[in-house]
Amino acid sequence: MQIHHLRKLAISVSMVCLIGCTSRTKHDAPAATQNPDAGAAFLKMVADEAAKNPILSDDVLIAQFQKHRVTFEQLQEMIATDSKLHRVDEDWTAPKDPSDAGVSPSRIAEYRQLLMEVGCRRGFETFPSHSGIYFISAAQGTVAASQDQGFYYCQSTPDPVVTNTASYRAEQTAASFKVYRHIDGHWYIYYARD
After folding, report:
1. Hey, is 96 helix, strand or coil?
2. Contact 142, 11 (CB under 8 A)
3. Where do the structural domains in the chain lie, given as residue ranges?
4. Does pTM top 0.85 for this prediction?
């Protein structure tokens, strides 16, 4: 299972637990009366996170890439060098201890600073089983219903490549999909719904 799916699963389990606590009757355990707004607080947290990481139009993402292309290419080269490092997010990494991948804390700080600079505070993700790097500019929702968006670097052509991710997803009826739009060279924007 991918790391970001595990994180979304943990959030979903927390949400179920919190909402379950708020739905108890007054005859149930006292926890229900101690925190009756837990479910609402969790939903507000999810909404706040979505507001910090909005899904953007293709044109905005492409302009963002063009503005920061040199930094994106620097990040791609760093990730190729640190091939055992599979994820850097704003507050966690995979592996959990970056030194297991031969990466120092100062290098992780450099990644985070550069990722913030290019508008990808949710970091990057690579998968050992296939090539390509996802630079995540937005990640919203829970394991039951989520969407993420950003930039993708890959030597081969991903599938499917579309002319506009927004119009594709507006017409899409599938519960889960991932699409790409070519920017230039080996660079794409992507949108995924799970």
Report:
1. coil
2. yes
3. 3-51, 55-193
4. no
